[in-house]
Queue: 2 jobs
Job 1
Amino acid sequence: MGPLADTVRSKSKQALLLWVDGVREACCLHRVIIYSLRSKQLAIRTGQCFLLNGFIFLGSIFVLKSVIIPALEWILPGHCPQINSPESCSFSSILEFYRFLRGGLVQLFNVFWFYPLYIFSLILSSIWYNDIAKHGFFALENYGARDTKLSDQKESQTLQSTVHREKSTDLEGFMISIAEQLYSVLLLTFFFVEVYVTGLIPYIGKALNFMLLSWMYAYYCFEYKWNLSGLSLDKRLDFFESNWAFFAGFGNPCVLAIFLFSSLVSYGVMAILFPLAQKPTKLLPCLEESGEVLDWEGYQYFSLPITCRCES
């Protein structure tokens, strides 16, 4: 039991360090400002996401709940006045009609404004997220992890663009890329169904739902960078499974935020936080295989089947 207990304690400490570092990485929002100053297009796309999802979408929900619904309740009251009279509720049928009319007006507002705005925001945000990841990725490649340019960055960028061009002109590589994308969509679809089903389990369902949503959110964030880096799907999944504690910590802050609100408000909050979580970060596995324990910013906690290069 001694060696087993030591192994469990060591692995638990390793997982805790990974989780803490994932939370810390997700909360480094100052990089959004830094990289937005480096890339004008990145700043524009991030601002558009804030404008659409924060100001317009969440602002519309605030106006509906704080202005429109209270005004309708004042104009079309649904309760009898508090008067000590036996005939005070003689017009209850009219009040019932008022309640029905008020609910119908709110539903019309939802049908003709909120639901179209939700679909429009979903489609447009998906396009903008890809642009944000692309501009952030190239801002990192051009400037490096610090404010000064690195001398070998241009060579690295040219090499990557050459690889991408060769991959795009090769039919076999193109078909493999399409197959990987389809497999990724199916994988995330089944994972989403699993998230929904686990949420129905009594007692522990919410906790499992929270953890699975955190993993799914983190995978979505990093998949944009991995696509731009040309990383194959099997390496992505191996890296994700090997660093499950880091990605759990990375997804926890945003998922915790959306757990506190209703579904529409949760979507608006997630749509704002998602581009912030795509801030450039050099977290991707190298190609060579090794069993070494790596040192990332003073923490030695990786012991993976593949060597990982992690730089903030």
Job 2
Amino acid sequence: MTKQKSIVEFEEIYSRKQVAVSERFYVKLKRQHITIVSAPGKGVLITGCESPIAWYLAKKLDDLGFTVYAGFNVPVEDSEEAKILKEETSGRMKILHVDVTSEKTLLEAALFISEHLPYGAQGLWALMHCAHWIALGELEWIPFGVLRKSLDLNLLGKNDSYFQSRYNKTLFLKREGVARLTQLMLPLIRRANGRIVFLTSGLNKVPAPVRGIQCATQAAVESFAACLRQEMRPRGVDVSVVAAGEFSPGNAWLNETELREQAKEMWSKLSTEQKKTYGEDYYEAAMTSVDKYSKEAADIQPTLRVLIDAVTRTFPMARYTPVTPHEKFQIFFAEHLAPSLYELIYGTKK
């Protein structure tokens, strides 16, 4: 009986060692340069190239030899960033107008890419969702139409001309709708056995005032990506999430003037009772709590590196988390501590 038990224990130890060796080998294999794919003949569509991180990502991938389709939310002729990007990159760079609120521009972009694939390519190698624009404010302050449409624009990519005219850019910031664009591009991506990359916020599970709609939409995108990954595995398509830190979109991702105009617009729509309850001082302090994002310098290099890794590696990771040590600790505490204990450390005072 003792001998049989010893054999079982030995088999368990040997099995664990085998798993450990296999994991070390896989990690080592991933780190070797032989796992990097060949860039020539591969096309990459990047959305949100008006943001610093997507702009630099497009430039870097062009330098590596990829054919880049840089999507801008505004017409190309109206974008100074698009003109500069075109001037500073190779002839492979394609500048596109990709406006998620317009089905027409999405279809035109999909048709253009299908007709201008790199020579010999069967499809599109990568689709990278990098735009990142959000609605800000506590739940009671944001008009319900903005909440509903922010979710539509973030996840679905729905067009609504009334919403655009009723709530202009000073009232909300939008992120491209990932679902509709992904739908249109999936046939091309499947043909190339390519990959889809979602840039989200690593803090979407960290509760914070004013950023409720941001946390909700980013969590929705992550769940969407996780399910899509399972759906696409049998088709040979990789899906990765880059859950970046707070400053991932780059310097001054939130315009200070737009932030103050948004706050002023929402304050004017509150009822007399709401204004009396919250008070103008509290309201202004809450809305300007994100003011640092319009002023502080951002280190986008960690996020940029993992975005490039998600495109160039043969075996990309399912989830990248380029966050600071402080953000990593806060995420860990938010997920594992009891809410009452977490709120003692990070919560707002009563």
